Each structure stands twice: as C-alpha cells, then as structure tokens.
Amino acid sequence: DVIVVGSANLDTTLRVCRVPAPGETLLASGSSVTPGGKGANQAVAAAAAGGKVHFIGALGRDSAGETMRESLRSHGVDISGTHLLQAPTGTATVIVDDSGENLIVVNPGANALLSIEHVDEVLAEIEAPVVLCQLEVPLETVRAAAEQNPGRTFVLNPAPMMSADRLASVLLLTDILVPNQSELAQLTGREVPTTLDEVTDCVNGLEYRGAVVVTLGALGAAVFQTVDGAATHVPAPIVNTVDTSGAGDVFCGVLAYGLSQGSDLVTATRRAVALAAESTTFHGAQMSSRNPV
Ligand code: ADP
C-alpha cells in the first residue's frame, strides 16, 4: 500500500488566442475541467500502476469536491481518509494560448486546511510501507506526516519548492527526496543544473542525509543512494511527447508504488521513468486509467 498526503484541485483550463493583459476581456475558444492537484495526481498514478493507494487530503462539501471524490474513486483510490470541510475545494484556473504561454491562479481552499490532527488520526490507522507527500498542503501537516513514520519510507516531492531553510525540519525526516531540476536548483541556491555532472554537483552540496532521485525531463532521472555518492542515470525512452504537464506527478506516484512493492530505488525509478515518459504522449495532468501500464 501507498499513502499519499497532499492536495486535490479541480482545474479549469480556458483556451485563448493570447494571454489577456490586465483589465482586458477575451473570449475563450474552449474550456475543460479536469481533476488535478499534485497529491491527487500522484495518488491516481500510483493506483494506475497497480498499487493500493490511500489518499489523505481535504475537499470542500461542494460540487468540485464531489467531482474530485468521484475521480479518485473511479481510479481505485481509497478516499476514506479524505476530510470533507466547510471550505471550497481547491481550484486551479489555467489560461493557455495557442503558443502554450499560460497564466495560472490557484485557490488552495480546503487544501490549506488539511490539519495535523486529521493526518495523524488517519495515518495511525493505515498500514503502508511508503508515505508520499508534496508541498501543496501546509508544511506543518507535511512534517506531521513525516513524523508519523516508524518503519515507513517517507518520500518527498518538494513541489512547489520553498526555501531550503523552511524545509529543513522536513528534510531531516525524509528518506527519499524527488526534486526536478529547478526544484534542486532552488534547494541549493544554484542555477538550474542541466548536465548530469551539474546535477551531481548540486546533489553533493545538499544539506540532507537521505537518497535523492532527480527528474530530468526528456533525459529521464538520476538516482543518488546518498547525497555524497555518484549518480545512476536512468534514461527516458524517446516518445512522441505532446504534453509534459503532470509527468513529474506520474513519476512520483509510480516510484512510490514500486518502493511499496519492495523494489530497490533504481528499479522503481526505471518504471517511473517509463510510465512518466508514456504519460507525456497524451493530454492531461492525471494518468489515464485507459492507459495500459
Ligand atoms: P516535472 O514535470 O516535475 O517538471 P520532469 O520534466 O523532470 O518533471 O519530468 C518527469 C519525468 O517525466 C521524467 O523523469 C521523464 O521520465 C518524463 N518525461 C518528461 N518529459 C519527457 C520527455 N520530453 N520525453 C520523455 N520523458 C519525459
């Protein structure tokens, strides 16, 4: 089993010919409403990979919350640990133009209210070897999830990134850190590393004691068993990429699932790289259940 503690949002995407200027009104050429939020996306990816997944998050008692619950359930995710609150379900409104330029406004809503007490209570009742978190819910709640972990592997995807100082107490409790290149840059205060050597330099400079898996987009991922060790490069297959949004979430979900099955870090990373690459060949942030895995 895998426990995912994190965010759930209902995303609305509006397609426009160009991103509007402040004060301007534009007509959209189309729109779509899709389930999102890094937590929900990662939970769905882990479930689609074959895992039994428990999602711990917070939703509003509104239609968006109902849609999110339906979506998670339809992907086989256990939502009995999801808290229903008197707050709006989190939303993201995305405005995207023909060239791919975008504008995004996130309203965290219920996600911002996911409490330490709720997470403690649910975690105490679920047996699972792996807990996966991101940073779209309060940091204190993430820390609580990391603390409630006797014998569990705590995997942290530090997204969206915050300063390494604020994250320090959570990093102390993290077993496997999974940043992308820009998150790694922010963690180390350096420029975005592009080559494997630069990535290795950054990781070697981290003030952290666990393992690190850095996602490298089309280059795949680099696995570091320890921060002062060498990288094992896991290349991505060449695929016909149409949309990379959510690829990092698929990666994290599949990685956590592999670890929960007892795979070693490199083996779990291989599968995560393969399925994340596959997810870039269709549109949408959540892994489709139609996608054979
Ligand atoms: P994020 O979505 O967080 O920015 P990355 O861009 O590093 O994360 O992508 C995560 C994973 O998705 C990569 O490790 C890789 O497996 C896969 N991926 C992303 N972009 C591509 C691509 N263009 N071709 C193949 N695989 C990709």
UniProtKB/TrEMBL annotation:
Question: Can you quote the record's cofactor note?
Answer: Requires a divalent cation, most likely magnesium in vivo, as an electrophilic catalyst to aid phosphoryl group transfer. It is the chelate of the metal and the nucleotide that is the actual substrate.
Q: How is its activity regulated?
A: Activated by a monovalent cation that binds near, but not in, the active site. The most likely occupant of the site in vivo is potassium. Ion binding induces a conformational change that may alter substrate affinity.
- Catalytic activity, EC: 2.7.1.15
Q: Which residues bind ATP?
A: N180, T215, L216, G217, A218, L219, G220, G248, D249
- Primary residence: cytoplasm
Work out whether the entry's keyword set contains NAD.
no
Give the Carbohydrate kinase PfkB domain ranges: 1-288
Q: According to the UniProt entry, where is the signal peptide? A: none
Q: What subcellular compartments does it reside in?
A: Cytoplasm
The family database entries (InterPro entries) matched by this protein are listed as: PfkB_dom, Ribo/fructo_kinase, Ribokinase, Ribokinase-like
Residue positions of the active site: D249 (proton acceptor)
Cofactor(s) listed in the protein's UniProt record: Mg(2+)
Q: Which CDD domains match?
A: ribokinase
Domain of life, source organism:
Bacteria
Top-rank EC class of the record's enzyme = transferase
What keywords are assigned to this protein? ATP-binding, Carbohydrate metabolism, Cytoplasm, Kinase, Magnesium, Metal-binding, Nucleotide-binding, Potassium, Transferase
Q: Which Pfam families match?
A: PfkB
The pathway entry for this protein reads as:
Carbohydrate metabolism; D-ribose degradation; D-ribose 5-phosphate from beta-D-ribopyranose: step 2/2
Residues annotated as binding K(+): D243, S245, S279, F282, G284, S288
Q: Cite the record's note on assembly.
A: Homodimer.
Reported function: Catalyzes the phosphorylation of ribose at O-5 in a reaction requiring ATP and magnesium. The resulting D-ribose-5-phosphate can then be used either for sythesis of nucleotides, histidine, and tryptophan, or as a component of the pentose phosphate pathway.
Q: What is this protein called?
A: Ribokinase
Q: Which organism is it from?
A: Ornithinimicrobium pekingense
Tell me the name of the encoding gene. rbsK
